[in-house]
Design brief:
The protein is α/β, with parallel strands linked by helices. It has ten helices and eight strands. Helix 1 crosses helix 10. 39% of the residues are buried.
């Protein structure tokens, strides 16, 4: 695998870095897409379950599906891609992780500064007022309610809903300010997240894509790695750290 001196130079220089991750990163941990699965849920279209209309029509069914998903996702483990991104956050003084994934694997791997564009499947919130309700135990046959009277729902972005405004605004701001942008395991087809790499590029960032297959973003990337992020990211980071250890200062002590 060939890594340019430019990428290593940027990591060593401790520049403002943003990483955007998509479903490909989770797939390497065995997290299914929940489309066309065998068994009970194979006959259901996720687009007919992951929506407010579906929840209002049959909240019990929707919660049963999400509890099943939580159970499956809970058995998955962070992979080397997740772990390397957590290490990058620990060593780089200005690092932001933006994810389209809802599986919580980045946080389980140790990442803390995570912008979750599509929410987090392990969290709950009130359907009506939006208050977080994470400590509430869910019984699909008797769905609890918030003090305002609203039913509790999964804290994820459903079809037909807008992304959380604060998360999106912050992600755009970070992309605009970044000097290095990593697009990892995403098809670059789901908007508005797919705009972030080009926003960064248009503001002068060095754009790196890591994905098994070419995407619509590939022609715009300054550097492209075709393969699994769990295999590629550790190599890139190891080379950067080896180079840094031979210098006069560590990545953490360099100025952005």
């Amino acid at each position: 695998m060939s890594i340019t001196a430019k990428l290593i130079e940027l990591l060593r220089a401790n520049v403002r870095t943003v990483a955007l991750t998509g479903a490909g990163v989770s797939a390497e941990s065995g997290v299914p897409t929940f489309r066309g699965n065998d068994g009970l849920w194979s006959k259901f279209d996720p687009t007919e379950l992951a929506s407010m209309n579906a929840f209002m029509r049959n909240p019990k069914l929707v919660w049963e599906w999400y509890l099943y998903r939580r159970d499956v996702i809970g058995k998955a483990e962070p992979n080397m891609g997740h772990e390397t991104l957590a290490k990058m956050e620990q060593h780089l003084s200005d690092f932001t992780l933006v994810t389209q994934n809802v599986d919580n694997l980045h946080r389980r791997a140790g990442s803390q500064n995570v912008i979750e564009l599509h929410g987090n499947i392990q969290r709950n919130k009130c359907r009506q007022c939006g208050s977080p309700m994470d400590q509430v135990e869910i019984d699909p046959d008797n769905i609890p309610r918030c003090s305002c009277g609203g039913q509790i729902r999964p804290d994820v972005v459903w079809f037909g809903e807008l992304l959380p405004e604060e998360a999106l605004v912050t992600a755009i701001k970070m992309a605009e300010k970044s000097a290095l942008f990593l697009s990892i395991g995403t098809s670059a087809l789901v908007y508005p997240a797919a705009d972030l790499p080009l926003i960064a590029k248009n503001n002068g960032a060095y754009l790196v894509e890591i994905n098994p297959e070419p995407t619509g973003l590939t022609p715009y990337a300054d550097e492209v790695f075709h393969g699994k992020s769990g295999e590629i990211l550790p190599i890139i980071w190891q080379v950067a750290m080896e180079e840094a250890s031979s210098g006069e200062a560590s990545l953490k002590t360099n100025e952005a």
